[in-house]
Amino acid sequence: MGRKPKAIREALGAALGTGVFALMVLLLNRVLGWPDSWPTLVATGGLAFLASALVSKILRRPWAAHAGAVCALALLVACPLAGWPFQVGREKTVWREAEFIAHLLETEDNGPVENVGIFFQLPTVDNKLPTVRVAWGLYYMDNENNLRLEVAFRWKDGWEMEEVWENTHPERTKPPEILEHGVGTGVLAIVIDRIYPRETVILRVPVQVPEKEANRLTLRVPGENYSGAMFTPVRPENQGFDKKIRVWFVSRLWNPTENGFYLLEDYQRVIEYDGKPTVKLYPHLSPSFS
Q: Count of domains in the chain?
């Protein structure tokens, strides 16, 4: 008869140890978000085991501590196998979207400009460039100031033209040719063979960034309170156009959310020049939803 009460006490002690272990794991997960890495997984198992061991000390029986040890071992083995609640070796990332717009409003002789290099300051984190992708489109602003998509390009092992509409510039007889493109030290560049007045280049750049660094992502030139852009001829190099042009630059950073796109940064400038110097873009609007 004596063995039965002892077995019951052992079972109750083990159940109590298991319950305390589980409560400790849930508490650490709720308050600290643990485990989210190998070190925090080990720490979670260790702290939960110590909680069950404390129960054993209070009861002056080892059963709760034994149960806690078994639970800790099961936690260390099961979590990595299940991938819960973290992915081993993977850092959680989020997406942002940069939007770059260059409107060629007018030229001195109302004619096109050729071999046009368009450059924008890319979003960076502490002057480091995250993973980016690029898609862009050429638009025509009609007489009612509506933007009409002429042609869209997306990079898929080379530029692929996705669609062409009828509403093109009256003088444009063929899609634009991409002469060069690339990402430099924090700068996105694309070179187009010809752009007509009232045509607009819009580049959209989804950016993947570690979640813990997302708040530091910015379009600003490092150490400054402005962004930068260029609309310049690249052939011949380091020379401006042979005529004045008027360009409207827009550089924006968006946060995609369930409620729409939240505007994080907005830099703009309208300038009349020959295309030679880099243009500083200044803060335009307060953050908002769109």
A: 2
pLDDT at 290: 43
Q: Tokens representing 112?
A: 């096109």
Listed residue (73, 52, 75) closest to 64, CA to CA: 52
φ and ψ of 50, to 5 deg: -65, -35
Q: How far apart are CA 199 and CA 67, in angstroms?
A: 72
Structural domain including 181 reads 93-289
Under a CB-based contact definition with an 8 Å cutoff, are residues 285 and 263 in contact? yes
Nearest Cα to Cα of residue 113 among 22, 233, 198, 31? 233
Q: Are 167 and 140 in contact (CB under 8 A)?
A: yes
Span 265-280, mean pLDDT?
92
Asked whether residue 87 is domain-assigned, the answer is: no
Percent of the chain with pLDDT over 70: 86
Q: What is the mean pLDDT of the chain?
A: 83
Which residues is 74 bridged to in the sheet?
Answer: none
| Residues 41 and 136 reside in one and the same domain | no
97 neighbors 256 (Cβ within 8 angstroms) = yes
Does residue 35 have a cis peptide bond before it, meaning omega lies within 30 degrees of 0? Answer: yes
Assigned token pair, 23: 């409560």
Q: What is the pLDDT of residues 63-91, one digit of tens each?
A: 667 777 887 788 777 776 665 555 444 56
Separation of CA 282 from chain center: 22
Q: Which of 63, 82, 101 is the last residue of a domain?
A: 82
